[in-house]
Write a sequence for this structure.
């Protein structure tokens, strides 16, 4: 068990690489292979897929113990999730509601990722940057994004 | 000679026009700004400024993006010297001796020498760029598909082997990049591959979103949770206190020379770049120095050499990009992306068909570096003040600008989800200590390699040995194999020596 734990990094990499490689080989089996002279769409992916499986085997064989993988702490996790939510929020609102609501939401969520920002600060920062963004990109640069 | 003069005149007419100067200044100013601020990398900046470049002429767009790139490499060392917190990855080495210098009260001298070394390295790199690109592109016009396959293979192997970390890990990253590059329509047959029936994927994954996701997003996320910034050592930094002593000058000029040479070499080699060059030049200086014990304790050579190397590499990185259309690092991949948005097909024909773009860029590099000298010597105090902006208010705004920047490339919300997905991939790879740059290189070069590989085998009727029959392709492939052998060999040798040392220690 210690053997596996101390080599987690290489083992994860090997599993992912071998997985992707196998998927490519299987999926490429559905495309026309062709010959070396006139390759079909399946030729190059098949070579690549097998190379990936070989590389995965190689990294397993040569793997060396490293320090045990560190999982993100509570604060990092919170920051990560809020930044992700911020990008997601922008993507989901930009086409339906326009730039000002989308930027306000994105900045608000991202600001909450830092524990030093209070709720009202995040909201004010969001609204302020939304108006600035609308002025720069909509009025100044004339991007084709509606403000509302 | 007269053609060189007329080319230069053409370049000057573009770079020294009002708009040329304006966008050059904007680029180097913003570049220094993001270089100075730790936590905002150059990739996040490129994402934020993407919308501005779309309604510019391609030459002006590239002038500005180029300015951001080399401006950031000037600014990166400021935080490195003052706070031991590198503003950009490539300036980490500068902090090894720069920060001890600052603690001895010699921060001014360190900053001064950094600016001079950066300028020297940059100009050296620009001369290389101007001197080598034209002949290289002439040779490249005669390249067939075999030569391109060989060159790109060299780039991928060099990127995996010469970087830091274990080569096998970088090779894995390259292969993942190649796999991601498969997604999209197959150019020869029109078959949709690995698209899972999604029409958005027919053009492949969006390059800009992938690149910014891999490099920019982890930077933003990593600094989101950081609440307290390290304190800036509040020294008075004025120009007249910054003058290096005569002894400093005497000790710095040879390291600058060597650093520029090393930087030029690694910069021009596709797949490697400034990061490697700074490490190598630092190691070289410590080896040739008469007093290696001073390194790490404030040796000025340890500041001058890596800075010259870094900046020479940045400028030399444009050589393969502009003359062959092969990007050597992630920033150059973005540059190629911008060129393609503007309808310029990167490759050896660019220099002949748009000399205004090529020579305009070259002259703007010189002008931009002069501007940077002013920005970084008399005005260095301003950047030191900027280091005090509270980061918790800055990064939410960066997030918003990045969203708008990525969205404005194709006006597809799909791109933002790609950005997010690759951001998490980048974070995961960092956590597992895998390098991300080889993955991006594989992603960019993958479709090109497949295309040229298929073409090469059509031309030579399926004869795989034809790669070795052609002198240029054969030579490049032999070099590639030698690099690979050297990497494996040196690892085995180090392993054997460690084992012998352990045995001797056990016997003693």
């Amino acid at each position: 068990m210690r053997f596996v734990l101390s080599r987690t990094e290489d083992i994860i990499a090997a599993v992912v690489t071998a997985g992707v490689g196998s998927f490519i080989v299987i999926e490429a089996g559905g495309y026309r292979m062709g010959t070396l002279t006139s390759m079909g769409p399946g030729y190059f992916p098949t070579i690549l897929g097998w190379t990936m499986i070989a590389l995965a085997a190689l990294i397993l064989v040569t793997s060396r113990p490293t320090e045990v993988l560190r999982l993100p702490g509570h604060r990092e996790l919170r920051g990560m999730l809020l930044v992700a939510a911020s990008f997601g929020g922008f993507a989901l609102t930009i086409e339906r509601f326009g730039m000002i609501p989308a930027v306000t939401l994105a900045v608000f969520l991202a600001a909450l990722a830092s524990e030093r920002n209070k709720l009202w600060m995040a909201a004010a920062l969001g609204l302020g940057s939304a108006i600035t963004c609308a002025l720069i990109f909509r009025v100044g640069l004339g991007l084709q994004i509606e403000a509302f | 000679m007269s053609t060189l003069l007329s080319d230069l005149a053409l370049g000057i007419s573009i770079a020294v026009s009002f708009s040329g100067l304006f966008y050059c200044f904007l680029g180097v100013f913003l570049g220094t700004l993001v270089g100075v601020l730790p936590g905002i990398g150059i990739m996040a900046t490129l994402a934020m400024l993407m919308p501005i470049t779309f309604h510019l002429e391609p030459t002006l767009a590239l002038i500005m993006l180029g300015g951001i790139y080399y401006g950031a490499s000037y600014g990166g060392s400021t935080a490195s010297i003052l706070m031991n917190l590198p503003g950009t990855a490539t300036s980490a080495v500068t902090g090894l001796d720069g920060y001890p210098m600052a603690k001895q009260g010699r921060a001014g001298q360190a900053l001064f020498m950094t600016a001079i070394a950066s300028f020297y390295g940059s100009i050296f790199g620009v001369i290389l760029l101007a001197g080598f690109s034209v002949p290289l592109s002439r040779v490249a016009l005669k390249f067939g598909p075999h030569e391109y396959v060989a060159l790109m293979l060299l780039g991928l192997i060099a990127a995996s082997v010469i970087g830091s970390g274990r080569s096998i890990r970088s090779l894995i990253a390259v292969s993942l990049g190649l796999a991601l590059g498969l997604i999209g329509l197959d150019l020869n047959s029109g078959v949709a591959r690995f698209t899972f029936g999604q029409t958005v994927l027919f053009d492949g994954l969006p390059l800009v979103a992938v690149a910014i996701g891999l490099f920019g997003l982890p930077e933003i996320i990593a600094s989101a949770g950081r609440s307290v910034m390290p304190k800036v050592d509040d020294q008075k930094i004025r120009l007249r206190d910054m003058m290096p002593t005569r002894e400093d000058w005497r000790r710095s000029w040879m390291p600058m020379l060597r650093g520029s040479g090393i930087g030029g070499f690694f910069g021009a080699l596709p797949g490697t770049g400034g990061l490697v060059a700074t490490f190598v030049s630092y190691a070289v200086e410590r080896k040739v120095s008469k007093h290696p014990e001073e390194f790490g304790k404030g040796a000025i050579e340890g500041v001058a050499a890596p800075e010259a190397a870094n900046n020479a590499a940045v400028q030399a990185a444009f050589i393969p990009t502009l003359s062959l259309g092969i990007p050597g690092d992630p920033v150059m991949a973005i540059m190629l992306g911008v060129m393609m948005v503007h309808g310029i097909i990167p490759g050896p024909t660019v220099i002949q068909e748009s000399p205004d773009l090529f020579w305009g860029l070259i002259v703007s590099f010189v002008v931009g570096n002069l501007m940077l000298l002013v920005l970084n010597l008399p005005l260095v105090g301003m950047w030191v003040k900027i280091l005090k902006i509270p980061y918790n208010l800055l990064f939410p705004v960066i997030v918003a600008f990045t969203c708008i920047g990525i969205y404005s490339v194709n006006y597809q919300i799909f791109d933002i989800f790609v950005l997010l997905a690759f951001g998490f991939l980048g974070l995961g790879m960092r956590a597992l200590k895998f390098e991300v740059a080889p993955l991006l290189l594989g992603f960019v070069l993958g479709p090109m390699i497949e295309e040229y590989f298929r073409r090469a085998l059509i031309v030579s009727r399926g004869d795989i040995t034809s790669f070795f029959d052609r002198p240029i392709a054969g030579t490049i492939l032999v070099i590639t194999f030698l690099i690979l052998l050297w990497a494996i060999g040196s690892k085995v040798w180090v392993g054997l020596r460690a084992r012998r040392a352990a045995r001797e220690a056990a016997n003693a």
Observations:
- The beta strands of chain B are 184-185, 192-193.
- Chain B touches chain A through 60 residues (CB under 8 Å).
